[in-house]
Amino acid sequence: MTVDHERPEIQPRPRDLRAHLDEFPWWLLIILSVIGYMVVQIIVDPIYRNIFNTILQGLSTTLYVTAISFVFALIFGLFLGLGRVSNSVILRNLSITYIEFIRGVPMLVLIFTISYAVVPLLARTFGLPNNAISLTSRAIIALVLIYGAYIAEVFRAGIEAIGRGQMEAGRSLGMSRWQTMLYVILPQATRNMLPALGNDLIALLKDTSLVSVLGVREITQVSRLSVSTSFRYEETYFILTLFYLSMTLILSLLLQWIQRRAKIKR
Question: 128 pLDDT exceeds 80?
């Protein structure tokens, strides 16, 4: 006679509380606390509120310069990146020369040189007056030419991360090298490039503050003009910091969400 002994059910151990605490995004909580404190100051303090409304006038210019510059820098960077991995010795060396030149000169110096030397020179070459191109347009041109070089390296790394077998497979199907690059290589490389492109977008947003030296009325320039008359240095630059911190945080979280979606689809 056999007796069946019931095995006690093994309850899953509750997850260690410390593991939950380790995974909790404390950095986000700290940043949101700082932003929340500044928002309260803006609501309750009329001085903070007036300065906030003043700086807010330059936000549209900051976002406009960022968006237009990034779109054209992507296009320019794509062509430079393709030249960088080209089989043509001339294209490859021209691309490398341009990229290394841009990366070897400080960004502020390049902004001055492109805006006050290169653009006026091109304007005279085409018979245009020196004031035909606005300072905002010069700032955008400068950022496109600068960030195009950095984005080109992102495209190069993304393309080279795809195995050579993909190019050979495309060529075996009768595609040309450029057709294979466009329809086979780049779609796969884009997912790998998303984090780096996102970082460049955030860096570009922050570097739009540099075009304030040209007099472009983005939020940094508006803040400088405001503080020159109000002498409220602490309030003005705290609020300016709040603007950049909020924008970069939103962009960072949005890009992380996009990257997770891309991994799921993959």
Answer: yes
Residue 165 and residue 207 in contact, taking contact as beta carbons nearer than 8 Å = no
The DSSP line for 1-54 is ---PPPPPP-PPPPPPHHHHHHHS-HHHHHHHHHHHHHHHHHHH-HHHHHHHHH
The closest alpha carbon to 51, from 224, 255, 218, 226, belongs to 226
Tens-digit pLDDT profile for residues 218-263: 999 999 999 999 899 999 999 999 999 999 999 999 988 888 877 6
pLDDT reading at 155 higher than 50: yes
**SS3 for 86?**
coil
Structure token digits, residue 137: 């347009």
Query: Against a cut of 0.90, is the pTM above it?
Result: no
Distance CA 148, CA 153 (A): 9
Phi/psi zone of residue 182: left (φ > 0), alpha (ψ -120 to 50 degrees), beta? alpha
Per-residue confidence (pLDDT) for residue 1, from 0 to 100 = 47
Please state, in angstroms and rounded to a whole number, the distance separating the CA atoms of residues 66 and 218: 10
Number of DSSP helices (H) and strands (E) in the chain, helices first: 13, 0
Asked if 161 and 189 count as a contact pair (C-beta separation under 8 A), the reply is yes
